[in-house]
Design brief:
The protein has about 170 residues and is an alpha+beta fold. The protein has helices at about 35-55, 160-165; strands at about 15-20, 25-30, 70-75, 80-85, 90-95, 100-105, 110, 120-125, 135-140, 145-155. The protein is about 15% helix and about 30% strand. Strands 1-2-3-10-5-8 form a 6-stranded antiparallel sheet, with helices on one face. Strands 4-9-6-7 form a 4-stranded antiparallel sheet, with no helix packed on it. A hairpin with a 4-residue loop joins strand 1 (about 15-20) and strand 2.
Length: about 170
């Protein structure tokens, strides 16, 4: 188990199954604590990078109520997360030591992220309005292997209605 998860009990996680992507896992939503603070620090840095790249002010979207900070746990028996893009401006992922998160390249090939024990920042669907592409990705986890990730999906402020139609578990 990664060090940043030691303060959270697996009994406090909720079951999550999204039919559209055949996604089965457990989730622990975070609103405080060391890990939440760490992800907010990374989010602030990512906002600065995106503001510089896009030449727009994104400050109103920083840690807004629509954003989701969570830990996702895939148990030893299941844990597939089908092909998808994330809604939002970007998604910050703190990956564990697994090597099973794949991204889709424009040439039609799936490639492994070089993400073992690293942080990834992936473009979400909302960056399309700025001319960027969202990152299509998936997780294929072998049986008998646990996987934890900490994630902060940075949704645009005031998009609650649009969010609820896409993700019914917020």
């Amino acid at each position: 188990m990664p060090f940043y998860l030691k303060e959270y009990k697996i009994e406090d996680y909720e079951n999550l199954h999204l039919e559209a992507t055949n996604w089965k896992c457990q989730i622990k939503k975070l609103t405080e604590g060391k890990l939440f603070d760490l992800l907010c620090t990374y989010e602030k840095l990512a906002h600065k990078i995106y503001q510089d790249i896009l030449d727009v002010d994104l400050s109103e979207h920083f840690n807004c109520p629509e954003s989701l900070t969570s830990i996702i746990y895939y148990n030893k028996d299941e844990g597939y997360h089908g092909e998808h893009t994330d809604y939002g401006l970007f998604n910050i992922v703190l990956n564990d030591d697994s090597e099973n998160c794949m991204y889709y390249e424009d040439n039609g090939e799936w490639k492994l992220f070089d993400a073992k024990n690293k942080m990834i920042i992936m473009n979400g669907d909302a960056v399309r309005e700025y001319g960027l592409k969202a990152v299509k990705h998936k997780v294929e986890k072998p049986a008998g292997f646990e996987r934890y990730i900490a994630t902060k999906i940075c949704y645009p402020r005031n998009k609650k209605e649009e969010l609820e139609s896409k993700v019914n578990w917020l």
